[in-house]
Structure formats: structure tokens, C-alpha cells
Specification:
alpha/beta; 7-stranded mixed beta sheet; 305 residues
């Protein structure tokens, strides 16, 4: 890492968390750490004096025509001083070699991204872990997508001006980045804690589904077709389907080095995905980070409240 260029690490958050501390501890003197909040009244903004001296606070302001996350990343990209950029999130543990590993991987592959593995904390998000392992982990890996929780690239790797212009008109930061950036997903997962209430999980499921719909329409069509076929298989031959789906999901978990009993939920998760996907596609709005959005098309976003 000593030979790596100066790096700007961008992390949107409203609160100082242990993940922020993890990242700050890995910075070199030449690096900068931009913590991006929405408003000067956010918790992190009102405790500036308590922040590490390595941290630069950036206030993005209220989003207009895009999500709060997209607005924060666009503002952070404009404020960042360096050409090598890292995006990350505050909802998973960053081990002490996290930044060093990303630099080494970038030097080998060019733009790189780690992968999320979503760990549920309410009954519905626990049930959906196998679905997220398929779509959010295996799907991102096999389709060469970027995950905004841990991605490294340089400004010359994409058309930054066009990207930022589009970013301020959409919802998904990594969904859009994947259209602009050729990235190598690493077979290295970070466990992201999600859920807490069934309502939160429903809103997240709507958002995840809408991201695929807006950025990969053929993908959402094929996903729906495969989901329906799998559900029919589960209903028509339940004994074979239970064994087959469980073994397959357990194999996916093992491929990414994850040991979770939730692989046993593959069968009911597939059955639940049919009505949940229908519900997610039928919804006209969803809540993310305390704001409600109406996402009519990729670049048509309204902050409802």
C-alpha cells in the first residue's frame, strides 16, 4: 500500500459509527476521509469536534430529483481531492487490512468491488437471506457489477462529469456506477446487517427490486420467469425441490465462504419471493433513509416527503 497513490475515501452517514473509526485508522498521511451527511443538524455534523483529525466533514444538503445517497456521493466526488476513489458504507466491519487489500487488488485488476452478504435481523429479512445471496451476492459477482459498500476506482476509469450529471437524477449509486465502470468483483464478502422490522425489510425489498428493474430490464424479466419456474417446481415436487434448492443455496454460501443456517430456508424463500416480487413491482413509492421516493424511470425521481 505504501506505493499506492493518495486516496479519497467517501462514506455517506449521519452518525459516527465503529465502521468510520475502522476506516480512519487505516488512512495514510496522504489520504483523505470524507464523511458525507445530509444536513448540519445531523448527529455527526453536530459533533464535529469529536471526529478524528483525519476526517473531513461534507454536508450534501437535501436531495432534489435523486436519492439522498446519490446526492451524498455526487457531493463527495466533487469535494474529493484525489484521483483514486473508494466508496464505502457504515453498516459493516472494515478489518485492519481492508484498504490495503483494495489497493493490492486494484493494482492487479483495475477497478474492483467487494461483495455484500446480507444478514437479516427480523423474521422477513432472515427468510430472504437465500434470495439476497442469489441476487445481491452471486448475481453481483457473476454479472460484474459494483457494490457501493466497497468499491475502488480512479477518475480516469470512467466519464466522471457525465456520471455525476446522471447520478443527480437517479436513486441507485452503484446501479448507475455499474453502467459507467468496468469493474472486477472480488470473491470477498462483507456481512451487512439489515432489517430490524418487517416494514423496513419490505421497503428495502421494494428498493432492491426497483434497482434491477430500472438498470436491467431484461434481468428483471428473466428473474421473474426463473422465480416463477422455481416456485412451480417447489409446489409440484416439494420433496425434491426442498433438497435441491437447499443444496444449491448451501453451495452458494460455501462458494463465498459463508456459514449460515439460513441456507435451510431456500425452499420457503423461493415461494415467498413470488408474491414479494409482485408486491415490489406494483409499489409506486418506497422509503429509504427516512425519505419516500417515487422512481418513475431511471432518471425521473421525486422525493415525496
Amino acid at each position: 500500500m505504501d506505493g499506492a497513490p493518495p486516496t479519497s475515501v467517501l462514506l455517506p452517514t449521519t452518525n459516527w459509527t465503529s465502521a468510520c473509526e475502522d476506516v480512519a485508522d487505516q488512512l495514510r498521511a496522504t489520504d483523505e476521509f470524507l464523511v458525507i451527511c445530509d444536513d448540519s443538524t445531523d448527529s455527526i455534523a453536530t459533533h464535529v469536534d469529536d471526529l478524528s483529525e483525519k476526517v473531513r466533514l461534507v454536508v450534501a444538503g437535501e436531495p432534489t430529483g435523486c436519492s439522498g445517497k446519490a446526492n451524498a456521493i455526487a457531493t463527495g466526488m466533487k469535494a474529493a481531492r484525489h484521483d483514486r476513489i473508494v466508496w464505502t458504507d457504515d453498516d459493516f466491519h472494515h478489518p485492519s487490512d481492508w484498504l490495503t487489500s483494495l489497493h493490492a487488488d486494484y493494482d492487479r485488476h483495475g477497478p474492483v468491488s467487494e461483495l455484500p452478504f446480507f444478514v437479516g435481523h427480523d423474521p422477513l429479512s432472515v427468510l430472504l437471506e437465500p434470495i439476497y445471496a442469489l441476487g445481491g451476492t452471486l448475481g453481483v459477482y457473476t454479472s460484474d457489477k459494483a457494490w457501493a459498500g466497497a468499491v475502488m476506482f480512479e477518475r480516469d476509469d470512467l466519464d466522471v462529469d457525465a456520471f455525476l450529471s446522471d447520478l443527480r437524477q437517479t436513486v441507485s449509486d452503484d446501479g448507475l456506477l455499474s453502467e459507467y465502470l468496468e469493474v472486477t468483483p472480488l470473491r470477498r464478502v462483507r456481512r451487512v446487517e439489515i432489517g430490524g422490522t418487517i416494514r423496513e425489510t419490505l421497503e428495502r425489498h421494494v428498493r432492491f427490486t426497483q434497482i434491477v428493474r430500472q438498470h436491467d430490464l431484461p434481468g428483471i424479466v428473466s428473474m421473474g420467469f426463473v422465480t416463477l419456474l422455481l416456485a412451480m417446481f417447489c409446489l409440484l415436487v416439494p420433496a425434491y425441490a426442498f433438497g435441491g434448492t437447499t443444496i444449491f443455496i448451501a453451495g452458494v454460501y460455501a462458494f463465498f465462504g459463508v456459514r449460515r443456517w439460513t441456507a435451510l430456508l431456500a425452499y420457503p424463500a423461493i415461494l415467498a419471493q413470488v408474491p414479494l416480487m409482485t408486491y415490489a413491482l406494483a409499489r409506486r413509492t418506497f422509503v429509504w433513509g427516512g425519505r419516500r421516493y417515487r422512481w418513475e424511470s431511471k432518471f425521473d425521481v421525486t422525493v415525496v416527503d
